[in-house]
Amino acid sequence: MSNKLNANPVIYEVSKNVGRIRKPEDEDESVADPFDSEEIFELIRHINDPEHPLTLEQLNVTQQELISIDNDKHHILVRFTPTIPHCSMATLIGLCIRVRLLRSLPERYKVDIRVSEGSHQSEHAVNKQLNDKERVAAALENSHLLEVVNQCLATTIDK
Amino acid sequence: MSLLVRIETFITAPLESAERAEALGEITSAVDNGSLTFLTLVEQLGPKLTNTDPFIRAKGIGLLSSVLSSCTTQQLGKNVSTVLVKFYLERLQDQPSVGELLKGIHALLKANAVASDNALQIPSRMFSEIALQTYQQTTRHMAFSILELLLQHHLTAMKFMGDDFISGFIQAMDGEKDPRNLLMAFRIAKVLIESFDCTKFAEDLFGVVFCYFPITFRPPPDDIYGITADDLKVALRDCISATRLFSTYAMPLLIEKLASISGNAKRDAMETLTACAPVYGPEAVFPHAEHLWHYLKEEVFKAADDANITAALGSIRAITATLSSATVISHAMKSPLELYLEFAVKDSLHHLTDPELKYARLSGKMLVAAASSSDPACHYVVNAVLPSVLEQCSARDIASRRKTLLDVVVDFLSAGREVYGSVNTEAMDVDDDFITPLLVFKERVLDICIAAASAASAYVPLRQAGLRGIIELLMSRQLLAGPEVGLALGQLHQSLLMDADLDARSEALVSLVSLSRVRPDLVLQHTVSQLFAQLPVGSCTETTPKLLSLEELLGDVRELSVERTLCAPALQRLLERLDSVRETAGSSHGDLSYAEALSSTMLHIIEHREKLPQELGDRNDFVSEAAESILSPLLYKATIAAAGKGGIFTTTTILRIWASIFSSIMRQSTVLLQEKILRNMIDIYVRGNTSLLPEATRTLLGSSSFCPLSAEAPLQETNASLLFAAVICSCRPEVTLAIPSINEFLQDLLVRSLDASNEILIESLAKSVASILNKMHDDTAVSGFLQDGILSKIRSGISNLAMVQQYRQQYLQVYVWLVKALVLKSHPLGYELLSDILGLLSDDSLGAAAAQGMGIIASDPTDKTFTRQTFANVKLLHRQRLFSFCVPRLVIGFQTGSAAAKQCHLLALSHLLQNLPKQVVSNALPQLLPLLLSSLILPSPELKLATLDTFQAMLSDHEATLSDQAASLVTSLLKIVTAKSVATGDTMHVRMAALKVLGKLPECMDYAILHPLKPGILRDLMSALDDPKRLVRKEAANTRNKWFLLLGPKAT
């Protein structure tokens, strides 16, 4: 880990008032809460960066504004911003987000994961890799890769 | 047995054997009672002491030494000890016996039986005869103990020995490795350095001590001596920093350690440096100062560890403070301090002007650390740095960078506060000859802070930094005056009342709370008034345009009232607002919730005083004031409202809050004050004596009567009985009730409660009686009163099938409170009555009520009655007794009962489980497991929640018991989370609790047990991910991810 691609990333301050504001209807059994972008963001904000002991939120890689959801069409689009445009970790970060959402969202949703426009040199290639089912499945067959992903996801537990 | 035989036994018997100890004991007691003198003992030991076998000789000495260390000291006359010391010293050349010999000398010194001229010979003999490091640890330990004792008792004599002692000690210590011995050796070294003239030996002494730096000792896992690395570090540091003679040797070496790789060693070096600098003095520090700055900068900029940064900043402060004390030779030349700071500023300034500002904050911290050390340093640094920082602060247009610079400014303000004091610092503690250098800049700083804090700046952290700056300015001595204070406060209020961001608002509140500690007058006069100006007078209509919600305003009032001087005025103003609320006809829901919010704020403020540890006098002042100004007005208000038969002040919502206020005031009161309040209460409530009320209240009351405890009175009036119960239940046991006959009084209250129809009145009266019975000292009087008719009346009422069920339940309710009072104090009658209630669990019509009753008996009421806080007689372990009494009966009842009875038994069990410390439950777990598992199937949410709670607690300690049932537990849990049906009792909270238990399994149970369950769990949890409730989904996702991460047996 001595030669990090971005050895000294900018760390963003995370608001102290984490978590969503509780509303009375959250406790009301008769009201169904729809999925929204904040809920998706809550799921991925605590994922650890593969290089640094920092979360994707602290590195501003994930932002709630970059998540959109269409409940009628069961479609979710998550975009993320690598810290530097030539970041070779972008695919791995995307894979972590992909796996986290695979494990945490109901099957009816189709999830697209992309790097936000213009934030990466090989934007097209990364996007293609992340949204190709077979390639994701193949990546997760690789036990070493899976181990790295699981490590990055370990920080999301009990948050 | 003759002496010789005993000696023989001692020497031949194996070590640690009983007969050896016995022989020693007998000899010692013979010496103690004077029948055996030491001289005789030595004579008899003669053959052993001159034996050719070295082990026999050592054992002979050992016997003598053991006797010496365990006998009482009166037998040790001066002559005897002189002879013994000489004898011991003489024999020190006998190597195998050295250990035992030292033990004897130690015993003699410990008994303080050695004269100084004899003591003088001990170290010289020891140093010349013994090469200490060739002996085992215990022997060395003994030798160091002897040296320490000598320095303690015979310091003057040892000083006479001077250089020989020091050189001998250096030799003895050289090469020591055992932490126990080292700790002692460091202590001895420190005494030597402080009391002896060490000039000649400074280098040697330093060498023998410093070679242990840095300490890397780590205590072994089974360490029984409890010596930590920190103990050694501190002892060593004390040695190194004990004399300036060490400075020439220490400084280069410490700098070398600063450059080492280990973070711990670096921190140790920095902390040692901080301790040494003031002792070594400016002459020693100055030549290395620039060098040190570089190393420390490296540490601050690169350190991953906050502790290291703190240590580095501490060193900078110590170095600057030391240089500040340097004498200036001529004014033409720059002083060492100036030279040093000139260099430091030059080295840092470019970081503060660098456009990226990457190291600005850290550079700032270093300069601030230097500035906080002394007046001249503060002047120099502030004048050299602040102008350019301030200039940039106004010039920068990127908010996050302005924030960084403002942080540096705020740090300077707090450094100034450290040197020149806060507004509340006693005038004698600070020297007014020193004028803070910040004075020149205060206007600009204030402007910048206000601009940053105002809502115009869009970046929240910048606003927060501005607020921190304002509060530092307000708290600093010598800075703000007159209109500036107003300006600063104005901005704080602006942020508190108008800022839309929660973080910024709470920063403003925190600032004001800390200001209230030093300037309560300002906060009371301005802030509290501002807040109250926002609180509506009279009715609170929904349409009133408000900057902040009521809750937020009252929350602020509550936080600020933590300060004692603000407490009373705030309460008074809240009460005034409460007075203004429309109380009778035409009151709306808004009025009720306004009155409720005001009342609970008062409650919070009063209860907060309870939590503070404080001088008793102050609490008495507060509480007697509160009794007068809060309790009485509320009592009269309730009385008028109740007699007027209506209005919001007769609703249980308000009255319950008031009851808590009464209770809290009572809890803080002395016996005397309690009796006064109680007398008033009984007069008005029981006797209906309205003449005690103040004139104004009586006029309002008119001719209407007030009898809130009467069964015939209207519902609204009897609600006021809540206040009566609150006062009665919070009495101290020493309080005497002002009534002629206690039995009649209790009887009267009980009969009223049995006849009453208002639920509130029934409970209030039953609780009052129960509380009095619980606090009565005389147990026979208690059972006497109960068995004198009243109990049988209640019992027959309960079992009277001809009565309406509602009445039977009412009787049962009263009965339950009496049982609770007795069970708490472990009164035997209580358990007798308790079995009646357990029996009723199988009753068709009263089963549910009985189960609820078990809940009342097992739990602490939320209003703190029947707890130690309200002075109840609560026996230790009464819950455990209750549990072990009930469990076997519940298990049998469950096994034999009908379906309905089964459920009642399980409910009763769940009440017990909820209120018991979990470790108590664990012993009965195997017995209870079938009951718990069947609880998960019944459609009662409370029952399920309690059971799941129990599982959650059991899992961490008793996974073994649960492991056998893991599969059936998992099945039940999955059923709950996949069914998602409220109708079967699986409410969202039940689902969440079930998911939590599921999520806890992977960390508690064996992989071998869980592995076969994993695929099914992952599959079924998929459906929980689509739960209609978001909170449940969150828990489901967390649990499912935990199971994904369960990949193999736990690494141990």
From TrEMBL, chain A:
Residue span, MIP18 family-like domain: 38-112
Entry-linked InterPro entries: FSCA_dom_sf, MIP18, MIP18-like
Any single Pfam family the record assigns to this protein: FeS_assembly_P
Cellular component GO terms held in the UniProt record: cytosolic [4Fe-4S] assembly targeting complex
BP GO annotations: chromosome segregation; iron-sulfur cluster assembly; protein maturation
SUPFAM superfamilies cross-referenced by the UniProt entry: Fe-S cluster assembly (FSCA) domain-like
Keyword line: Chromosome partition
Domain of life: Eukaryota
Family: Belongs to the MIP18 family.
UniProt-listed PANTHER family: CYTOSOLIC IRON-SULFUR ASSEMBLY COMPONENT 2B, CYTOSOLIC IRON-SULFUR ASSEMBLY COMPONENT 2B-RELATED
Name under which the protein is recorded: MIP18 family-like domain-containing protein
Record organism: Spizellomyces punctatus (strain DAOM BR117)
Taxonomic lineage from the root: Eukaryota, Fungi, Fungi incertae sedis, Chytridiomycota, Chytridiomycota incertae sedis
Automatic annotation (TrEMBL), chain B:
Example of a GO biological process term: protein maturation
Residue stretches making up the MMS19 N-terminal domain: 42-301
Family (UniProt): Belongs to the MET18/MMS19 family.
Residues annotated as transmembrane: none
Protein name per UniProt: MMS19 nucleotide excision repair protein
Tagged with keyword DNA damage: yes
Record carries keyword NAD: no
Alphabetical UniProt keywords: DNA damage, DNA repair, Nucleus, Repeat
Principal place of residence: nucleus
Source organism per UniProt: Spizellomyces punctatus (strain DAOM BR117)
Its job: Key component of the cytosolic iron-sulfur protein assembly (CIA) complex, a multiprotein complex that mediates the incorporation of iron-sulfur cluster into apoproteins specifically involved in DNA metabolism and genomic integrity. In the CIA complex, MMS19 acts as an adapter between early-acting CIA components and a subset of cellular target iron-sulfur proteins.
Compartment annotation: Nucleus
Domain MMS19 C-terminal as annotated: residue spans: 558-1002
